[in-house]
């Protein structure tokens, strides 16, 4: 979870620098690492980068709002990094402040959900750290 929090800080720094594709990618990474931390707490290991599938692997009830965020973030895992995804240009030509706003909002929502569940599982108000 500590690394997820660092990825979220990186997403925010990239956002502030107007590197919106990087902010979206780092937001996905924050959510992915948080989900993998939760799976670790549940003694489950799963490889892969689809955070919506990672959440389903947890066996926990995922609220629709969180699931929508997971799916939204999943859409930004590859196109934020690879210029050949687009017919022309590079990821930086396609990503906007609005995209980054939504990715940051979703990453925070996912991380909050993970922390709430981890606290419930552990039976204490401490974080996953």
Task: Give me some keywords for this one.
Four Helix Bundle (Hemerythrin (Met), subunit A), 129 residues, elongated, 63% helix, 0% strand, mainly alpha
Protein architecture, described:
By secondary structure, the chain is an all-alpha fold. The protein has one domain: Four Helix Bundle (Hemerythrin (Met), subunit A) (Up-down Bundle). 63% of the residues lie in helices and 0% in strands. The chain contains five helices and no strands. The longest helix has 26 residues. The mean pLDDT is 94.
Which homologous superfamily in CATH is the superfamily?
Nucleotidyltransferases  domain 2
What is the SS-derived class? mainly alpha
Question: What is the count of helical runs?
Answer: 5
CATH topology: Four Helix Bundle (Hemerythrin (Met), subunit A)
General form: elongated
Averaged pLDDT: 94
Q: Strand tally, please?
A: 0
Uncertain runs:
none
The SSE order reads HHHHH
Q: In what range is the share of β-strand residues?
A: under 5%
Tell me about the biggest sheet? none
User: Architecture in CATH?
Assistant: Up-down Bundle
> What level of helicity do the residues show?
55-70%
CATH class: Mainly Alpha
Provide the number of structural domains: 1
Task: Kindly report how far apart the N and C termini lie.
Answer: 5 Å
> What is the radius of gyration computed over CA atoms, rounded to a whole number of angstroms?
15 Å
Secondary structure elements and pairings:
Blueprint: H1 2-16, H2 20-41, H3 51-57, H4 64-74, H5 97-122
Helix pairs in contact: 1-2, 1-5, 2-3, 2-5, 4-5
């Amino acid at each position: 979870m500590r690394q997820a929090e660092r990825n979220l800080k990186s997403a925010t720094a990239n956002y502030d620098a107007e590197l919106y594709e990087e902010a979206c990618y780092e937001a996905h990474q924050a959510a992915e690492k948080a989900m993998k931390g939760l799976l670790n707490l549940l003694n489950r290991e799963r490889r892969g980068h689809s955070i919506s599938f990672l959440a389903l692997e947890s066996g926990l009830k995922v609220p629709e709002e969180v699931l929508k965020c997971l799916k939204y973030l999943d859409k930004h895992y590859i196109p934020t990094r690879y210029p050949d995804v687009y017919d022309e240009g590079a990821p930086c030509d396609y990503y906007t402040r609005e995209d980054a706003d939504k990715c940051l909002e979703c990453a925070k929502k996912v991380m909050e959900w993970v922390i709430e569940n981890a606290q419930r599982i552990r039976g204490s108000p401490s974080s996953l750290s």
